[in-house]
Amino acid sequence: MITKDVKKQLIQIVGPENFDDSNAGRLVYSYDATPQFQSMPDAVIAPRNTDEVSRILAICSEHQVPIVPRGSGTNLCGGTCPTEGGLVLLFKHMNRILEIDEENLTATVQPGVITLDMIRAVESKGLFYPPDPSSMKISTMGGNINENSGGLRGLKYGVTRDYVIGLEVVLANGDIIRTGGKLAKDVAGYDLTRLFVGSEGTLGIVTEAIVKLVPKPETKKTLLALYENIDAAAQTVSDIIAAKIIPATLEFLDQPTLLVIEDYARIGLPTNAKAVLLIEQDGPLEIVARDMEKIEAICKKGDAVSVQTAQTEEEAFALTEARRSALSALARLKPTTILEDATVPRSEIANMVKAINDIAAKYDISICTFGHAGDGNLHPTCTTDIRNEDEMERVEQAFAEIFEKAIELGGTITGEHGVGAMKAPYLEMKLEKEGIAAMKALKAAFDPRNILNPGKIFAKDARKRVVTER
Amino acid sequence: MITKDVKKQLIQIVGPENFDDSNAGRLVYSYDATPQFQSMPDAVIAPRNTDEVSRILAICSEHQVPIVPRGSGTNLCGGTCPTEGGLVLLFKHMNRILEIDEENLTATVQPGVITLDMIRAVESKGLFYPPDPSSMKISTMGGNINENSGGLRGLKYGVTRDYVIGLEVVLANGDIIRTGGKLAKDVAGYDLTRLFVGSEGTLGIVTEAIVKLVPKPETKKTLLALYENIDAAAQTVSDIIAAKIIPATLEFLDQPTLLVIEDYARIGLPTNAKAVLLIEQDGPLEIVARDMEKIEAICKKGDAVSVQTAQTEEEAFALTEARRSALSALARLKPTTILEDATVPRSEIANMVKAINDIAAKYDISICTFGHAGDGNLHPTCTTDIRNEDEMERVEQAFAEIFEKAIELGGTITGEHGVGAMKAPYLEMKLEKEGIAAMKALKAAFDPRNILNPGKIFAKDARKRVVTER
Fold it and tell me: Would you state the pLDDT for residue A35?
């Protein structure tokens, strides 16, 4: 609850135009891209600079007002749903690229910068920021940092955490700290930089970030390999790595996903294939040519029924764009789309896909599976209807079993989407109670009054997927 | 102090042959590779497995006995000196490579494995573990992980933290937790894996680690560029990066260092040059050839008086080995060698080297400077004599000024050596009091009774370099 007095203090900081507690204003920020989660904030606030964020947090801390930092709300774990009310904090005024430093290969950004805008800005200087979450057209850098976003290029290049080398963060008590810097090496104390990355706004509010850039790869080539069965596709993934080739992208799509994407994108995807690998290599011209030749041979030897290399940049772009549109395409099928990201060691992909299909059959639900095969990060996606209570019950049981299987295979409950409110009930499967206890102690150390995105990461009670509005 | 009863309990766990509280046994572990630090532990203990580590920690926690995990003690920050007594914990029984997984490109190791042994083992399978601290012939993986060791290949490949993807850690209370896994992507909760890396044994005891491997580069080429002045060398570093080339190694050595190394290694280093760059590129044959050609042209255009490409593998090996021997070579000069690692953004290297030379002149002390120019990680090294109190006073003042300058240039007080006991008094320069407070809260959350390597990272009081035995 925000009292009249607190409201007055907050308005004094940001001005009346940047504070909104109207019903309409609050409603817009009561949910994010995650189905099943909605909860009204008490107000929405848009600070103009770090100092204002600091003053807001000091007030929130004093009055124990929850505060939820939010980029574009594209996350899929209920991470920015204000499940305990309080303030939603927007970065619409803190959305600039502050610097692209070509000598030190860094970019300094505010949290509200759209990911793709930054990617384009650095590419125009011959540089490259590899993390490319499918939502990058609308997601923000702040959101990517808080969720440690992955993407299609993760196999070769890593994820957001691998590129964040410095942060400005406002702590729960209003303290402003700076971590790291334009430095390739820094061991001055604990690595708070990487700790804040992926902490989902529960340890501090990121107000500025320095990211590492690399030279832009000279060229890129894309191919599609079609398979009659999933095992053969999974074996190809292993065979490519065993040949000591690390492609930039190594995506897997099963037939149900292919059908849906083709129906949406209409680019002539081979919907008769049981499984498809979308493979991309980038780098120097001659190496890309050589790698792609080897990859093609491996695919063919591995029982691919067809291997198609994109002949033009447009064709390649269409293929990857189609893959990126998987969520949108699937979302058209039924009212509710639950996109998960159980992740396993690369060697277990075939086993995991098979287990997912068995589990879907067992619970009589529809699951499409696609994902980043190269790094074992799969996206089993269920199209369903939240109003069908009986089916939802089965969906929940199925996903619990999927997570159990992932853990059994040495995997994790979430590879790149985060825990948020949605996965919190499952976290103990991965971490066991000792791991949860350590993380809770860490959370309490940074946020003793539990105002920073409360209700996220840690479950209040037993496994339960559907959260009702408070 | 270890009471009779505690001693009895510890011996029950590890057996009498793995517990040593004799004077001779303790003396051996009263110091590490850092000058000026010595302090006797109460006993030395060598557990045989994780369960024993857990039981030891439960006892230490109960009786508030300090415990200092130690690999080979090659660190340069007093990180493994038992400054507050207690137990030194050795990993001589936990020194095996448990698995090299060629499908998932991982190695699973115990902390006592010698770094170079692991590097050789994975290279024999065509794989590559890039972090290569100069001490790798004797350092352990556990030590590398605790100190987040860097090395010569950091510019292109990153440091130890970039390769650790899973850990088994025993917490202060004896809890055993597992973080990460054989997973390229994992966002299940806070990133404890990277937090433990570089935490210098102050948050938990690492008992097992999964490291990421990459395919072994096909080939490697090495060249030496000689300069008449430091500025030209520093400019070349910037020019290479500006040409979008990231060499595997880009080392800088000033003339005083060259003279000392040549005197030690006798491989015909050009001791008449004022500065030398040692540059190495690895990768596919044609790319290495192309990059090295470009680099050679950049060096020549940048006023290098001579550029010499190593003609054979042996010649290349001799050059990098000579560079790696810098500390040993310098240590022969005078009784005390203080090797520092102030680090700045790459673009500030020339400014930093100049500042170091000015400061050395101002305090009338002898400083040689070499280091990883590509990542701004310099090693100003002072050869002195701890018994010369007057000079030591000046050395301390000089280094304080060097750290101040590094911070002023956007750098840090330590790039790869860690804080330990030695840098603790300077940490606040980099982190300010708010950053220190956040890290102390984190430490208290993990180690409320302050038994894990106490006295490290955080300073008790004001700046003071020399620590006397307790």
Answer: 87
Helices (H), B219-266: 230-242, 255-265
- Answer for the pair A283, A219: CB distance below 8 angstroms, yes or no: yes
**Cβ(B41)–Cβ(B30) under 8 Å?**
yes
Contacts of B131 in chain A (CB under 8 A): none
Give contacts of A 148-187 with B, CB under 8 A.
148, 150, 154-155, 158-159, 161-162, 171, 175-179, 181-187
pLDDT band (50, 70, 90) for residue A470: very low
CA–CA separation, B132 and B156 (whole Å) = 12
- Nearest neighbour of A444 by CB, restricted to B161, B412, B445: B445
* Number of Cβ within a 10 Å radius of residue B21: 16
Residue of B nearest to A158 (CA): B184
pLDDT band (50, 70, 90) for residue B468:
very low
As its CATH architecture, domain A219-324 has 2-Layer Sandwich (3.30)
CA proximity to A155, closest of A255, A228, A252: A252
pLDDT for res B265: 87
What is the phi/psi pair of residue A385, to 5°? -140, 115
Q: Of B404, B422, B451, nearest to B65 (Cα)? A: B451
Confidence at residue B461, expressed as pLDDT on a 0 to 100 scale:
60
Fold match between A97-215 and A219-324?
Answer: no
CATH code given to domain B4-90: 3.30.43.10
Sign of CA dihedral A298, A299, A301, A306: negative
Say whether residue A447 is in contact with chain B using an 8 A CB cutoff: no
* B453 and B32 Cβ atoms separated by less than 8 Å: no
Query: Read out DSSP for B270-310?
Result: -TT-SEEEEEEEEESHHHHHHHHHHHHHHHHHTTEEEEEE-
Cβ contacts of A130 within 8 Å, gap of 6 or more: A151, A153, A156, A157, A158, A163, A214
Question: How many CB atoms neighbour CB B425 within 10 A?
Answer: 22
* Shortest CA gap B407–chain A (Å): 10
Q: What are the residue ranges spanned by the domains of chain B?
A: 4-90, 97-215, 219-321, 333-417
A451 three-state secondary structure: coil
Contact A177 B419 (CB under 8 A): no
CB B304 within 8 A of CB B225: yes
What is the topology classification, in CATH, of domain B97-215?
3.30.465
Q: A334, A411, A409: which is closest to A366 by C-alpha?
A: A334
If you classify domain B219-321 with CATH, what class do you get? alpha beta
Chain B touched by A430 (CB under 8 Å): yes
Quickly tell me which residue has 């690492």 as its tokens.
B206
Helices A313-324 and A255-265: crossing angle in degrees, nearest 10, is 110
Q: ipTM, 2 decimals? A: 0.95
Q: Which helix (H) or strand (E) holds B99?
A: strand B97-101
For A333-417, the fitting CATH number among 1.10.10.60, 3.30.70.2390, 3.30.70.100, 3.30.70.2740 is 3.30.70.2740
pLDDT value for A11 = 98
The total of other beta-carbon atoms located within 10 Å of residue A92's CB is 12
Query: What are the residues facing B180 on neighbouring strands?
Result: B166
Q: Name the nearest CA neighbour of A248 among A156, A132, A378.
A: A156
Residue given tokens 């170079």 in the structure block = B116
The mean-pLDDT minimum among A186-195, B85-94, B329-338 falls in: B329-338
A216 Cβ contact list (under 8 Å, min separation 6): A123, A126, A127, A128, B244
pLDDT at A461: 60
Q: How far is B182 from chain A (nearest CA, A)?
A: 6
Collapsed DSSP state (helix, strand, coil) of residue A412:
strand
